[in-house]
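dude i think i finally got it to work??
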Amino acid sequence: MLKHIIKNIDTAASGLSAGFSGVTLETAFQPIISLAHHRAVGFEALVRGYSQAGKPVYPPAIFSLAQTEFDIVYLDRLCRALHVSNFKQANHPTGWLFLNINPNVIVHGKKYGTFFRELLAAAGLSPDQIVVEILENTLVDEPSLDNCVAFYRDLGCLIAIDDFGAGSSNFQRIWRLKPHIVKLDRSIICNAANDVVARRMLPNIVNTLHEAGSLVLVEGIENEAEAMIAMETSAELVQGYYFGRPVSGPIVADSAATVVSELFTQYREVLGLRQGGDKYQSYVAALERAVACLEGNAGIFSENLDCFKPLLVPKGGECCYLLDHHGKQLGETCVNQSAVYLGDRHFKPLESGQGAIWIRRPYWLRAMSRPGEVQCTRPYLSIRTGRLCVTLSLAYDSREGIRVLCFDLDCEAAEGN
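look at this
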């Protein structure tokens, strides 16, 4: 089949082209950008179709032309051969070529002989230059999906799960398939741009995928706001119109360098504000004063309540509590009785904190690892108010041993202060 497919590829003004059922097929390359490297490190190959009258024929219409099993396999292989040939002609020796492959073709393709290994050998491309994008939702048969991934992994290609976060995508498949790259569906970046909770969660989703052993690519970025949201995560790769549209013709690896450089300039400014403590500066100062008061007074928790009172004056201050070096809470929580959202009765069984062990909480872990420095958690659900809060914490030496003073702030009220 390879020889027959190669014969069907012709030279066009914008590169190589091929024909199928009266439609001329061409390749368009969209850059895959490494934010850290400020340049394209790969290109996704996308098929573009044109009728005999020169009018665009969009991919869904192209693939609907393949009615039989043989035609489905043939068209998929024809597109791959066209993309590989155009990529080779573009002479980009170190970049990745991202290829979309329908897993069903692997299931049926075995009936029609070997193909992909021969194609790469004929083009002189190493399998480790190829990133195979598998749209997992096209297969509900898990064994077939596993076989598809194993086939390309054994060939030496990189595996990417495409459109993660859409349809039936789930982490269980990520853990099982262990892809090299996970591409986050555009719906995720759109949700993050329009929902503060989704935006807050996105960095954690990326971190979870990293811990599963995958690189993360955020796709579908179309504007500066979405690009900055991607910058706030630790995702390595990005893709979208904001960084480069799919184009036919020569590949330009550094076309996004200026755009990425400007993003980093803006991100440094945002990062500088965060590190400068401007966001919670008044609360940090109040926490430090309370610790200074505690350091100068010995005795049990109940004898030092005056030291805590200043923490409950600023707007947004919810409560404060003291932990020992084992993470055990000493005494009850001191609560701001004037807090508007005080007392979510849904969490009434969790209200008393005396004697609770908070050793697993980030505010205790971080404070203990860096005594004398105020630490700040990411937002989380407050069991006292049922709203999002952050905790400032500070570890210090007392006459009874190391103590950690914790100060909870209502996110919305504190940030608007």
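The CA atoms of residues 137 and 168 lie 6 Å apart.
im so relieved honestly
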